[in-house]
Amino acid sequence: MRDPGLPTLEQLRVFIAVIDQGSFSKAARELHRTQSVVSYTIANLEAQLNVALFDRSKRKPTLTEAGKALLADARTVSMKVDALRARAKTLAQGVEAEVSIAVDVMFPNCRLVAALQAFQLQFPTVGLRLRIEALGAVMHLVSERVCQIGITGPMLDFSDAFQSQPVGSITMIPVAAPTHPLALIDGIISTEMARDYTQLVLTDRSQLTAGQNFGVIAVRDWRLGDLGAKHMLLRTGLGWGSMPEEMIREDLDQGKLVHLKLAHMISLEYTLHMINRVDEAPGLAGRWLMRYLLDHTPT
Fold first, then answer.
1. What torsion do the CA atoms of 12, 16, 21, 26 make, to the nearest 10 degrees?
2. Which stretches make up the HTH lysR-type domain (predicted)?
3. What's the CATH class of domain 98-168+272-295?
4. N- to C-terminal Cα distance for the chain?
5. What's the fold here for domain 9-92?
6. pLDDT for residue 93
């Protein structure tokens, strides 16, 4: 038996249309072809592939087992070609193929999801790479050109190599589980007393914040690279630490965490900045995403 030939894209699309429309005649109307042309195209496709795609003993087009197996492949090829054409069109219009963004782990999830959904609707053919990091790691990724856009926190000085624009702030509050010794204290908690208990601290993998202790006062601290892990450990009562108020509002309302009134910090505003390298400006899609984030910054 000879090897299968090379089917054309037109043959595959006629094959798909027959299944989607339910008959050869309806597929012909949908494709603006005559029914004889559709039948001839399917016959040629079967000849190319060396298999029968339809059971012709039945009145309605019914796929054979081979037809069922090859239909999924035909759809994949057709969709890939459509995606290629759509991407070529956006590139011809000056839209970049991919946008990369690094986002501070503290950035509110609801704002991030809304921005990403809006971006995908606006630029469905543009690839998007997302990194969620802590502290200096965001600036490091932008500095090293791994990501074009960054949303970072307030800890670092921005050199002339970066363009920086404010994108709001979030409220950080110190908390602990209701069973934690600090949570059992009424009134203001002195810094000396808080220092005696393990503090859970978010850290990052870059060297930009090496040797810097942002808000760390405890003699013992646990350094965590994941905000979710910090949240989990706080709820178990293994330590105390600061968390974004929005993220733990439900825990506070349900009594799973307690707001600690520390003498040195009742709450803290964690400012957020959008950054990019001045010598490597994002393209059309990247600029659209930056503008969306700026336009939807809470006032």
1. 10
2. 7-64
3. alpha beta
4. 71
5. Arc Repressor Mutant, subunit A (1.10.10)
6. 66
- pTM of the model as a whole: 0.65
- Cα–Cα distance measured from residue 232 to residue 245, given in angstroms and rounded to the nearest whole number: 15
Q: What is the pLDDT of residues 233-284, one digit of tens each?
A: 999 999 999 999 999 999 999 999 999 999 888 888 999 999 998 877 788 8
d(CA 60, CA 249): 59
pLDDT band at 158 (very low <50, low <70, confident <90, very high): low
170 DSSP β-pair partners = 270
Amino acid 188 reads I
Angle, CA 290 vertex, CA 289 and CA 293 arms, to 5°: 85
Rounded CA-CA distance 65/70 in Å is 9
Tokens standing for residue 272? 């957020």
* Residue-wise pLDDT tens digits, 72-125: 999 989 888 887 876 676 667 678 889 999 999 999 999 999 999 999 999 998
Q: How many CA atoms lie within 13 A of 157 on its CB side?
A: 3
Mean pLDDT confidence for 173-189: 94
pLDDT digits (tens, 9 = 90+) for 258-267: 999 998 888 8
The residue ranges of every structural domain in the chain are 9-92, 98-168+272-295, 170-268
Residue 151 near residue 272 (C-beta atoms within 8 A)? yes
Say which CATH topology domain 170-268 has: D-Maltodextrin-Binding Protein; domain 2 (3.40.190)
CB 141 within 8 A of CB 131: yes
Cβ neighbourhood burial of 215 (10 Å; 0-12, 13-18, 19+): middle
Cβ atoms of 19 and 45 within 8 Å: the answer is no
> Considering only CA atoms, which of 214, 217, 220, 247 is closest in space to residue 232?
247
